[in-house]
């Protein structure tokens, strides 16, 4: 395994499960020091254990925080800088699936909740991490958007609106901060088998969610779910110096799903 992250500090939100955990394990195996943020203390502990198994001795700072809270965001960024002195990579990843309903039936409070975490949380992360990277004259940010951020998805008004917003923030921030040696890009995952996707499938059919999953991936050219480690591999590349000239853009990782519409 390469040591692309030897001496580097990587901050990951949503680090307690799913894509955040997969990325943490991958960059740790390549030498990164980690700061992991999540609302779940248990999730953070489980990720730290997975990191220790994959890369024994990795430095892991665990921070319990709500990414939609500005004080919490200031705190997790400050704690990372205080512990390590810098932030080289930021996987701005925390998010929720939200409930599924037609737009006319989508609750206003639910809309606000989904947008607060999935969009405001990404904005706040950028707001407080980008100045750190600007001051260093270097850094790489990867925001988690979605296939639902580059095309329409039925019954998910809040999620689609938030993820389209993440795409806009990514392009805007990349244009603003490229001059300071900082690149900002987004990934647009399709159906990746994570706890969040499982929860979405259970909204479709709680008793036969596996069957709902089969129907969901039948429209994908590759006829399968993506694996979290496949996303972790992409995130590791995008956080590394090898991707330094990729900026202000969105990269699908969806098995070709977005080309089917």
Query: What is CATH's topology name of the largest domain?
Result: Rossmann fold
Question: Mind describing the biggest β-sheet?
Answer: 7 strands, parallel
Outline, from the CA principal axes?
globular
Query: Can you tell me the residue ranges where pLDDT is under 50 for at least 5 consecutive residues?
Result: none
Strand order of the largest sheet: 3-2-1-4-5-6-7
Q: Secondary-structure element sequence? A: EHEHEHEHEHEHHHE
Helix content: 40-55%
Mean pLDDT: 94
Kindly give the count of domains: 2
Family: Belongs to the short-chain dehydrogenases/reductases (SDR) family.
Organism: Streptomyces glycanivorans
Protein name: SDR family oxidoreductase
Keywords: Oxidoreductase
